[in-house]
Every structure is written in C-alpha cells, then in structure tokens.
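Task 17 of the worksheet. Students: predict the tertiary structure of the chain below and write it out as structure tokens. Keep your answer in the requested format; marks are given for formatting as well as content.
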Amino acid sequence: MTFLAFAFLAAAAAQTPHVAVVYAVRGDVRVTAADGSAAVVSQLTWLDAPSTISSAGGARVAVAFENGKRFELIDRARATVAADRLIRKEGTVRELPWVPPLPKLAPITVTAPVSVPGAARIRGEHKITDLYPRNDAAAIADETVLTFAAPVMIRDVDVTVTDAEGKVVFETTTSDRRIALPRGALKDGSAYRWSVARTDDAETADAQFVTLSKEQRLRRAALHDALKAPDAEQLALAAAVDVCLGLQREAVAELERALAMSPHDAAIAQTLAHARETMSR
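Model answer:
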C-alpha cells in the first residue's frame, strides 16, 4: 500500500477545506475525485466533496466527517463523499457511532510575527537546537510546553516568548530544557515567537508557532472526552485531527499509544515514523 508523506498530509490539511478523514485502512482502498483522477487511500488521507471512495475485496476503511459522523466500508463497497455524510452507498457500508464535531479542518488564521523561513533561526555556535514548537507547529494556549536541546556545557539560558506585536509575555532564566508555560500566559488563536539565548549572549535560537482558536480547542477537548478509553483506531482519529491542527507533538503521542495497542499495524507504524520525522525537521 502506498503511503503519502506525513508532511504532505499536514500541509494539504492546512490548505484545503476537507470534509472527512480516513483514520483506519486495510487493503486496497481508493478515492476518485470529481475530475475522475484516482488515488490510493492511506491512513490520514483527507477527503473532499464530491468524491467517491471504494474498497476492494478483503479491504476495510473507516472515515470520520467534520460533523462527527463516522462510516466504514468493508470488502467490495463504494460510496460518494458528500459534505456531511456518505451517500449512494453500494455493498457493506455501515454507519458507526458518532463522535462530537471535529475541530474545523481549515487553517488557523493569525497575524504572525516577523517571518522566519524554514526551521528555527540560530545565531552563534549552533549548539542550541531542536526548538519545539516551531515551523508550522501549533500549541494549546494553556498547555504549551517549550522544549529544546543544548549540551551540558550550556547551563543557564534566557527563554523569552513574545506576541505578534513584540510584547514579552513570558521570560525566565533556567537550566531546564523543558518549560511549561503558566496558564494565562498565551491567548487562543494567536501567534508567538520564542527564543533561547545563552546568558553570555554567545548564541541565540528562536522559532515561531501559533495557538489553537477557542473553537478548535473546545471541539478537540470534546472529542477527547468522548474517547476516554480509545482503541487504536480512535487514537488514529485523534492523531489525524491533531495533524490538521498542527499539534505535532500530540499527534506523535497518540500514534505511539495506538501502536502499543496494535503493534502489528503497519499503517500506524508508518504514520508514526513520518510524524516523528516531521517533528525533527
């Protein structure tokens, strides 16, 4: 089965108003767009309306819509993807229990700080690395944790977070490589830049990120409340949502849990590998 690159999925999810996501797949499953072009479906493939999804003999696929409706196609089945459900169903197409409406699958729109292309910007000896969140990553305002790597020779560093207007919203001097920001430091739906600097100012690294909007945060919380004892497929659904939202760290954690529950699931293993690679860029 062909696997689409995780980074491509994340970028596509942020650019197109998709209506549904494939969160579990086994065997040969394909989607045909309105223009007649067809593609192999992989885990975390996003679906547009109208399109047609079909499963071959012995295959199975599970789909979740933004409104919370879920369906599965088993064996030789096909259906048309509409804006909020599957229609024109043929073969074994079952509706699964609903989940709360998913967070909006559109990109987060904020006024960003001064743009820095590519990965985290580093000035100095390049020993402060792996800042997260960075690039296209997002965070939940009151659950934001900043992490970075630095050799033991660099003990204390100055960590500063500024908002889109350049106002300092958090700063500390610490030897920790993991900093949990206090509740209330960040706002929903906002853009931030954060920096790590040696106290002797010999090196500075910085990156930027955004926080989820209030609606996205609340819908995501409702989904997780509904999945209090999730199985591997439901964790994959949570991960798919987090990929779209830019919550890379959270998606990796969910996929790790899913793989622990289903260690022989090749699709989950591949998705997790790509998720880790995306985080490390």
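Marker's comment: Helices lie at 6-15, 214-226, 232-245, 248-261, 266-280. The longest helix spans residues 266-280.
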